[in-house]
Automatic annotation (TrEMBL):
Annotated protein name in UniProt: Histone deacetylase
Domain of life of the organism encoding this protein: Eukaryota
Basic and acidic residues bias (residue ranges): 464-491
GO molecular function, one term: metal ion binding
Chief localisation class: nucleus
Chain coiled-coil ranges: none
Binding sites annotated in the UniProt record for a divalent metal cation: D237, H239, D331
Keyword Iron tagged: no
Organism the protein comes from: Immersiella caudata
Chain positions covered by the region annotation Disordered: 451-498
EC number(s) per entry: 3.5.1.98
GO terms under cellular component: Rpd3L-Expanded complex; Set3 complex
Upper taxonomic lineage: Eukaryota, Fungi, Dikarya, Ascomycota, Pezizomycotina
Family annotation (InterPro entries): HDAC_I/II, HDACs, His_deacetylse_dom, His_deacetylse_dom_sf, Ureohydrolase_dom_sf
Length: 498
C-alpha cells in the first residue's frame, strides 16, 4: 500500500484518483514559512510546557484514556477578511491547552485528511466533485440577487459559504479529525476523543450551509454505529443542529438533541421548534428521536445547567446510549459575535462534565464560535474536564502562553461584566423552561426503551480502518520526534510520578 496517497500535498485535492485534472499551483511554496517558531523557540516552549505539567500535576487520568485529534494545517486557512469563521481560534485553543501542559495527559494524534471515499460515505459524489474542483473566488457572491450571482451550485460561493483558497483540503482535514476520533473510540484506544477541528453540523448531503461544507459529525457517528447500537448526539451550539438531525431523521439508532436559540424569522437556520420531534408518522422508526430545546436570548449558566441535566438525564434513562457525540459549539457563550446568550465558560463546560459522569464512550467536537479568545477559553477548559484536571490548573492564563495578549483578560474565566459590560436581558422565564422539560419528558414516553432498539443495519465502512498505514505513519513520526522519545523515557504524564 502506498503511504504517500494519504499524506497532505497542498494545493492538490487529496481525493485522487479522480477524473478531473488539477493544474499545478501558480505560486510556489516558500522554503522558510513565515511567522513560525524555529527549533530553539520550540524547545524553549516545550520545556515551559513540561514544567507547567509538573507544577499543576497534570497526569493521565486513571481508568480511562483521553485522545486529542488535530491537524495543524487547518489553522492556516482563511474564509475571508469579513467572514465570522476564523480557523485562528484553533491556534489560540492549542496555545492554551499546551501552555497548561495538558498534552502530557492525553494521546495526541496528528490526523490525516479524510479521503474522497470516506467523505462519499455520506456526501453525494457530484457535490464532492464540485467542492474539490470549483475555483476559489476572492469576493463572495450576492446569491440573493440572481442577476449578479450567476450560476450558484450547492449553495456555494455566497457570503455564508464562500469558495476560498484551499477549501477542499480544509474540509477534508476537518473531517479527518472527527473520523479518526470515532475510530479510536471504536477500537478501544480511547474513551473520550476530542476533535475541536470538527463539529460542522449544518452541512447537508448535497449542500453547504451555515459556514459548513462537510458534515464531519455525521461521518463520525456513522463510524460509531458500526460498533455501538445506539448513539446520542447532543448539540450545545447556539444554532440548531439541523444537518445532523436531517441525516438521522428516520432511524431509532441515533437520538439527536439540540439546545439552541430559536427565532424562525430572524435567526439561522430557523428550524428546531419544540414540536419538531422527528417524523410525524408513528410507523417511522425515527419518530420522537429528534429532541429540540428552543431558547431565547440571555439564558444564564444556572438555567442552562438545570435544563441540560433535566433533559439529558431523562434521555439517558430511556434511550440508554452506548456512545455519545457531543458538539460543543462555543457561539452559545456570552460575547460571541453571533450568539446572544449569557453563558460563561463554566456553564458551557458543565455540560461536558455532566456527560463525562455518565461513563459512556464520547467524542467531543468543536463547532461554532466567532470570538476566538472565548472559544479558546471554553475548549481549553473542556479539555481539562476531559482529563480530570479542571481543579488543578490556575485560572490565570500562564505567562508563557503564545499570543497571550489576544485574550485581553488574563483569566480563563472572565466575568460577564468583563465580557459584555452589562448582561443581555434574559428572555427565558422559569415557567417556559419548565414547559420545555415537561414536553421533552412527554416525548420520551413514546421512545422504546433500549432493549427494544435493535441494530438492523451496519453502515458502510468509511474506507477501512487502515491500521497498517496509520501504524507505519505513527512509527515514522515517532522516529523524528526526539522529544517524544525522551518524554516516554522520563515517564512524564504517568500517574504518581510527581
Amino acid at each position: 500500500m502506498n503511504i504517500d496517497a494519504y499524506r497532505y500535498k497542498p494545493p492538490k485535492p487529496n481525493y485522487l484518483p479522480h477524473d478531473v485534472e488539477v493544474d499545478e499551483p501558480v505560486v510556489e511554496e516558500l522554503l522558510v514559512p513565515l511567522d513560525r517558531a524555529n527549533e530553539r523557540e520550540n524547545a524553549i516552549f516545550y520545556n515551559k510546557m513540561k514544567r507547567a505539567a509538573q507544577e499543576y500535576n497534570i497526569v493521565r487520568p486513571k481508568g480511562y484514556t483521553v485522545s486529542y485529534h488535530a491537524n495543524p494545517e487547518m489553522e492556516k486557512h482563511h474564509f475571508g477578511q469579513t467572514h465570522p469563521m476564523k480557523p485562528w481560534r484553533l491556534t489560540l485553543t492549542k496555545s492554551l491547552v499546551t501552555s497548561y501542559g495538558m498534552p502530557f495527559a492525553m494521546d495526541n494524534y496528528n490526523t490525516r485528511p479524510a479521503t474522497y471515499e470516506e467523505l462519499n460515505s455520506f456526501h453525494a459524489s457530484d457535490y464532492l466533485d464540485y467542492l474539490g474542483t470549483a475555483p476559489p473566488e476572492d469576493q463572495p457572491r450576492d446569491i440573493d440577487n440572481p442577476d449578479k450571482a450567476g450560476e450558484v451550485k450547492f449553495n456555494l460561493g455566497g457570503s455564508d459559504c464562500p469558495l476560498f483558497h484551499g477549501l477542499f483540503d480544509y474540509c477534508s482535514m476537518s473531517a479527518g479529525t472527527s473520523v479518526d476520533a470515532a475510530r479510536k473510540i471504536c477500537n478501544g484506544q480511547s474513551d473520550i476523543a476530542i476533535a475541536w477541528g470538527g463539529g460542522l453540523h449544518h452541512a447537508k448531503r448535497s449542500e453547504a450551509s451555515g459556514f459548513c461544507y462537510i458534515n464531519d459529525i455525521v461521518l463520525g457517528i456513522l463510524q460509531l454505529l458500526r460498533c455501538y447500537p445506539r448513539v446520542l448526539y447532543i448539540d450545545i451550539d447556539v444554532h440548531h443542529g439541523d444537518g445532523v438531525e436531517e441525516a438521522f431523521f428516520s432511524t431509532d439508532r441515533v437520538m439527536t438533541v439540540s439546545f439552541h436559540k430559536y427565532h424562525p424569522d430572524s435567526f439561522f437556520p430557523g428550524t428546531g421548534g419544540l414540536d419538531d420531534n422527528g417524523p410525524k408518522s408513528e410507523h417511522n422508526p425515527g419518530a420522537h428521536h429528534a429532541i429540540n430545546v428552543p431558547l431565547n436570548d440571555g439564558i444564564t449558566d444556572e438555567q442552562y445547567s438545570w435544563l441540560f441535566e433535566s433533559i439529558i438525564g431523562k434521555i439517558n434513562e430511556h434511550f440508554r446510549p452506548s456512545a455519545i457525540a457531543l458538539q460543543c459549539g462555543a457561539d452559545s457563550l456570552a460575547g460571541d459575535r453571533l450568539g446572544r446568550f449569557n453563558l460563561q465558560v463554566q456553564g458551557h463546560g458543565a455540560c461536558v462534565e455532566y456527560c463525562k459522569k455518565l461513563g459512556i464512550p464520547m467524542i467531543i467536537f468543536g463547532g461554532g464560535g466567532y470570538t476566538p479568545r472565548n472559544v479558546a477559553r471554553a475548549w481549553a477548559h473542556e479539555t481539562s474536564i476531559a482529563i480530570g484536571c479542571q481543579n488543578k490548573i490556575p485560572e490565570e492564563i500562564p505567562q508563557h502562553t503564545p499570543w497571550r495578549e489576544h485574550f485581553i483578560h488574563d483569566t480563563l474565566f472572565p466575568t460577564l461584566e468583563q465580557i459584555l459590560g452589562e448582561p443581555r436581558a434574559n428572555r427565558n422565564t422559569p415557567k417556559r423552561l419548565q414547559e420545555i422539560v415537561q414536553h421533552v419528558h412527554e416525548q420520551l414516553r413514546f421512545v422504546g426503551h433500549a432493549p427494544s432498539v435493535q441494530s438492523r443495519k451496519i453502515p458502510p465502512d468509511l474506507g477501512g480502518i487502515r491500521d497498517d498505514v496509520e501504524d507505519r505513519l505513527k512509527e515514522e513520526n515517532e522516529e523524528k520526534d526526539e522529544n517524544l522519545r525522551r518524554t516516554r523515557e522520563e515517564g512524564l504524564g504517568a500517574p504518581g510520578e510527581f
